[in-house]
Amino acid sequence: MAFVDSIVAQLIRCQVDLWEIQARLQAETDSEALHDLRIQLRRLRTLLRPLAKTLTAS
After folding, report:
1. Which pLDDT tens digit goes with each residue over 11-46?
2. Domain tally, the chain
């Protein structure tokens, strides 16, 4: 279960980071927000990739 707990914690961290980036994009206060969004989406895809492979194999 430690592996699952780790994945869930990382997903929650990603979600919080995405909310923060969304607020920065809407406020137009940070020129790096779009870059940070791209990085965060790449991390999210990396976390979800093994799950997608598991679901398609079933």
Report:
1. 999 999 999 999 999 999 888 999 999 999 999 999
2. 1
